[in-house]
Amino acid sequence: MRTHGGPAGLDPRPSSRIGHLARRLLRGTYVAMQRAPRPPSSPPAPRTAGIGRLRDRFCAYGGSDLGDFDLVALVLGGPSAVRAARALADHYGGIGDLEDAPPDEVATLGGLGRASATRLRAAFELGRRAASARVPRGRPVRSPQDAEAVLGPHLRDAGRERFVVCGLDARHRVRMVHTVAVGTLAYVDVHPREVFRPLVRAGAFAALVGHNHPSGDPTPSDDDVRLTRRLVEAGRLVGIELVDHLIFGRAVAVSLRQRGLCAA
After folding, report:
1. Is the CATH code 3.30.530.20 the one for domain 137-255?
2. Is the pLDDT of residue 170 over 90?
3. DSSP E strand boundaries for the chain
């Protein structure tokens, strides 16, 4: 029997069979694509939110709103700065010890490297120079309390012994402040030559000197007394009077002038 003029036994709707097969093929391809493993996503970007928040706080409120090691993180910069600053805080405990640490030692901590450690040391040096520049030139020094106010910012809370000299003019007004030497936790090596060289260069008429005891006890040692006497004699030779030698402890300072070891 023939229908619609086609040969016997053939599907009179060939186009519907082709469409059905095409739909099955497409469906199978879609399912295979869904089941195929997806390529791994790219690793997440390093977290920088911590350092970003510190920058925002610094810009909004200034440095007084941040802790010491928050400022260290800002100096270091980069995505790992906060972690590195925490490693430094854990190792050194305070900013004074970190300030006096050799750059090569700092570079081994927290994955910093030498470049970051050098940048941090340079920031401390700038801070010291800025503190020196803020010394009110022309400020008179007429008492141990005046001398303490001038030298204190350079010596208090330092993690290692530090020796500082201040040059005065003929009316005992401040001309300059200079760090002569930085030593260890218990000793700083000072020679009168290094003390008076910057004074002579600055044309000073008189001088204050001071150093700190990181132990917190400002009691003068026998070496402190001997050095003071040597400085008095050297000052007489070069014509620069040693007005006072102050030793700074944790909360107070001792004046060797008041103990009769410097010129009145």
Report:
1. no
2. yes
3. 162-168, 174-182, 206-212, 241-248, 253-255
